[in-house]
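EI: anyone free to look at a 212-residue chain?
SC: sure, send it
EI:
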Amino acid sequence: MKNQYLTILLTVFLMVGCSESTESGAESTQSGKGENPVSSSSANRTESGESSAESTQPEKDENPVTSSSTIADDDSVAVEPVVEIDEGKAYLHINAQNPAVKVLESGLQFEILKSGTGKTPGLTSNVVTHYHGTLTNGEVFDSSVERGKPAEFPVNRVIAGWTEALQMMKEGDKWRLVIPPHLGYGERGAAGGKIPPNTVLIFEVELIKVKE
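SC: here you go
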């Protein structure tokens, strides 16, 4: 009886062990079915490939035409130098185009406003004149007309432009003189700063009388 009892226990023990081993194998099989290592790694490679593709594509918002690297710097644009115009030379040039104006070799320009029939002064003569002197902008710097009293002086004691013109005038003449700087006050200017250096002068001169 004792041997039979032991045989029964051993048989039951073996049966229980086999049952647990079978259940463990089943669970292992089911676990293997739930996770496919091939499809999992493939999916990982696919996701990695998509990420790599996205990183190589340019951003849609970036416009290569308007990129700051292709826009020219405003500072690189050439700027034309400013050219200063000599108003005196411009005035002389324009005045010389007037058909009524005569231009002498010296550069003196004159226009006859009124003709007289009297005497012509010499280099050492004294003359009585009325005059009105202005700059090219019309600013008056000296005028015997405004003072209301004629001026008397020797022909050879005035500026070169006057000396040249007076020796061609007759008593009663009235001329308009345009005198370039080298025949006027040149680089020194005059009239207490009213006549700047290298200034073109305009005079209306009336020769009233010639005195020997």
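EI: Residues 18-22, 25-53, 64-72 have pLDDT under 50 and may be disordered.
SC: 👍
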